[in-house]
Amino acid sequence: MERIIVVEDDIYMREELINLLNKSGYEALSISNFENPVFQLLELAPNLILLDINLPYQSGFEICKSIKAKGMSNILMLTARDKLQDELHALGLGADDYLTKPCNMERLLARIKNLLRRTSKHEHQGLLDGGNFRIDPNTFTIYIDKTSYILP
């Protein structure tokens, strides 16, 4: 079962999304402590992150940039910000998709399914073992000891 993490500060929207995703067959969890969301996301290891932009402590843009630098994929920005420059900025930081709220829930589920399908095709490749290092061809990440490096 794919795990989706909702990073949304509006409790009503967060609960609505969690319920929708659970009913649609996903394991849906949320982050409600926004002081260190990147650490929480790395620990939870989701298949997809639904990420708002307007959050306390740090913006969704900053979180997106940090998560992508760690090699995680599948970030769908779900935000009320409907300006083209915001969408382009998010996509430039590595977001995989961008939807504005309110959005049609069928459209949201279709985008989620599409993103998960794209990455699941490549998951069978796994890590390449080089002896004292490993390479993840999906995220262009090299692992040496307990340190990861994103390849250019």
Automatic annotation (TrEMBL):
Annotated protein name in UniProt? Stage 0 sporulation protein A homolog
Against SMART domains, the record matches this protein to:
REC (SM00448)
Q: Which PROSITE patterns match?
A: RESPONSE_REGULATORY
| Gene Ontology annotations for the cellular component aspect, listed alphabetically | cytosol; protein-DNA complex
Q: Which GO terms describe its molecular function?
A: phosphorelay response regulator activity; transcription cis-regulatory region binding
Q: Which residues cross the membrane?
A: none
Indicate where the modification 4-aspartylphosphate is found in the sequence: D52
Q: Which Pfam families match?
A: Response_reg (PF00072)
By its UniProt entry, which PANTHER family does this protein fall under?
Answer: REGULATOR OF RPOS, TWO-COMPONENT RESPONSE REGULATOR ORR33
Question: What's any GO biological process attached to this entry?
Answer: regulation of DNA-templated transcription
Among SUPFAM superfamilies, the record links this protein to: CheY-like
Q: Which residues form the Response regulatory domain?
A: 3-116
**Keyword annotations from UniProtKB, A to Z:** DNA-binding, Phosphoprotein, Transcription, Transcription regulation, Two-component regulatory system
Role noted for this protein: May play the central regulatory role in sporulation. It may be an element of the effector pathway responsible for the activation of sporulation genes in response to nutritional stress. Spo0A may act in concert with spo0H (a sigma factor) to control the expression of some genes that are critical to the sporulation process.
